[in-house]
Amino acid sequence: MSATVDHRTKFPHLRQDFAASLVVFLVALPLCVGVAVASGVPAELGLITGIVGGLVTGMMRGSSFQVSGPAAGLTVLVFEAVQEFGLPALGVIVLASGLLQLAMGAFRLGSWFRAISVSVVEGMLAGIGLVIIAGQLYAAAGMTAPASGLGKISGLPRALVDAAGSSTALASLALGAGTIAVMLVWKRLPRPVRSVPAALAAVALATLASLAFAMPVDTVEVQGLAGSIQLPGLKAIGGLADVSVLGTVLAFTLIASAESLFSAAAVDRLHDGPRTEYDKELIAQGTGNVVSGFLGALPMTAVIVRSSANVQAGARTKASRVLHGVWLLLFAALLPFALALIPIPALAGVLVHAGWKLIPLRSTVTLWRAHRGEALILVVTAVAIVAVNMFEGVLIGLALSVAKTAWQASHIRLEVTDKGAGPIEACLTGNATFLRLPKILDNLEALPQDRPIRLDLSGLHHLDHACGTALENWSARHSAAGTEPVKVTELPLERATSG
């Protein structure tokens, strides 16, 4: 009896965490495999990242309920990296990204990611979602997708025509479409049935259907867990001297960190437990990526799908996410042959569904009605990712966000009071920066040349050097016309700048 009491005292929430870990495991299993296949790497590498996310990142401080693993949001970038640099370079890139995350966490830069415009993040996710959907439609038909995002989308009509003339492609598409249909219908079934995660149920049913009807579809290739591990070699490490490789490392780091920390903010809204410590969470993610990279696996992020499933399943402590890593390890070690039965069109269907959920259609419409500038940034970021690539698309979105903020911050207003006799009163309020200099000069030069003017600058919050010089020149020109010199009420010294 005393042993039982002691056990319950040590682990008061073990039952809830154990049950939640099984749910998270069942959600994570098809996603780990599907993300790996979509990334162009062996399926086992997705499981390795999921295992590390549970056993390593899951043990660390930061967020108690976030669950980490390979994310659909990075499949496009990973696929491009593997195609360009080769699979051996992937581990080194992930390892370097993890070290950067550790450095950012140590320098307390985690909270800065919260300052990134939500429109840029949602645009990034929308662009990723579009590329995932387009690419996985080819996989669902048993075809090879074009390399570029634009090529994937523009080539879809031709691919569908080709698929219509092939019974094998039609069977493959039917299996993928059936997988999506099961996932859509699953949430409307009775609660006892819905206790099984939709993705797992859909993949299991598709696997049974392909076996029962002997469907001619491709299945997952299995190498074994140990055989998939690739420790970093000297040649791959030397590749870090390549500027393009370093650019990929930076892209991995920024996107994985932003996705993880935005996921943390979302997960915090789902529970009343301890709030996320962002710098520690960044260190936890970095540690996980260092280990994943050392093993040659996929990059890791915190994943909102698994994290929300963890909370909704009743998890009380981080033990649930650690246990989910244990179940993934046992599955990969004891049942690897089960992976070889999974049809690739079924995994493609899971990822098409995941990609669709990344596209914020409703919030975009709402954003357009309230803040059209932000909605435009979202759309341009998504289109840039599809048309160019992930990293440059995000940079374009960030540049637009900064430009919009700078434009809004430079808002200025000129109020002119003319009583018909005496000097004209001109009052500038707001922020006088070079961005609004043409507007300021146009308004001032439109004032009558034959009347004395009093220019009041006391209402300005900021006056930069370019505007200050331009106002001095305008004042000199106006005074040279034979009227009284322009009288200026100066900007207070603490709000002026000579920059």
UniProtKB/TrEMBL annotation:
InterPro entries xrefs? SLC26A/SulP_dom, SLC26A/SulP_fam
User: Does Membrane appear among the keywords?
Assistant: yes
Give the main localization category: membrane
- What Pfam families does this protein map onto? Sulfate_transp
Q: Which cellular compartments is it found in?
A: Membrane
- According to the record, the signal peptide region is none
Quick check: keyword Cytoplasm in the entry? no
Residue spans crossing the bilayer: 18-38, 85-107, 119-143, 163-186, 198-217, 326-356, 376-403
Stated membrane topology is: Multi-pass membrane protein
Boundaries of every SLC26A/SulP transporter domain copy: 14-381
Give the top-rank taxon of the lineage listed in the UniProt record for this protein: Bacteria
Which UniProt keyword terms apply here? Membrane, Transmembrane, Transmembrane helix
PANTHER family (UniProt xref)? SULFATE TRANSPORTER (PTHR11814)
Q: What's the name of the protein?
A: SulP family inorganic anion transporter
**Species:** Streptomyces rectiviolaceus
Q: What is the lineage of its organism?
A: Bacteria, Bacillati, Actinomycetota, Actinomycetes, Kitasatosporales
